[in-house]
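Forgive a beginner's question, but would it be possible to get any protein sequence you like and the tokens describing how it folds?
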Amino acid sequence: LSKSVKACGSEALALLGQMKQRDSLATANDNKLRAALETILTTAEKLRPRGLELQQGELGDLVEQEMAATSAAVESAAARIEEMLNKSRAVDTGVKMEVNERILASCTELMQAIKELILSSKDLQRDIVESGRGAASMKEFYAKNSRWTEGLISASKAVGWGATVMVDAADMVVQGKGKFEELMVCSHEIAASTAQLVAASKVKADKDSANLHRLQQASRGVTQATATVVASTKSGKSQIEDTETMDFSSMTLTQIKRQEMDAQVTVLELETRLQKERERLGELRKKHYELAGVAEGWGEEEEGTG
């Protein structure tokens, strides 16, 4: 936007320069200046907070709807986990049943922690709105602080989405069709979404608020629960792999040597790919934090001031 404004200023000066000269006055053209002004308008519209396009009531209702949708998503996820657990007990035996039970039990604990997080977030939001901040009603407060409200909505969506995706991954693992690594990644995503929700809530909260401390405690509970999911998943993966130990007894020396060479090639390929994916992940996280900070305005104290 700054660059567009500077370009517009340059075009305006150029046009004025033409108008000052008698020789060029007749050919003076304002098309470039008009184009520069259009660019400013387009850029400003893109930067305009989306909440301003909504009526006060609509934005306030959207917060309630999204928190309710998140709660429903978590309840649905918890019910699916219970269903998977019952199904696994009916058909699986031995190590597979033990692994599935441990993973699904840790997922159940995580869902309970997320429920507590959502309840704490709702209570803190009520505290923030009731503290006044110059707003006459809850809906007016949400509309007045639209950037903060949109950050809250985005964070709530992320938590609900994370719970749903994690249960999908757990379902595939229990069926023996999914990857243990995917379940671990989903758990880390939920921890990140939780941090996002806490950050969005803290912006306007009183640092001495009891409900803020409760939310932070609930956040730590989610983090611990996600760590338990990751640990149980790693342990389960090791157990499953230990029961599937390769049998080399029937292979010849030549066959073993060939497979050894193939394994070395695969290891090198995977190491190269791992390094590239780590670099890509770093860039994605950097871009995500940049966009989240700018688009959702978590660092802003009061809108329309300063």
About this structure: The longest helix spans residues 253-296.
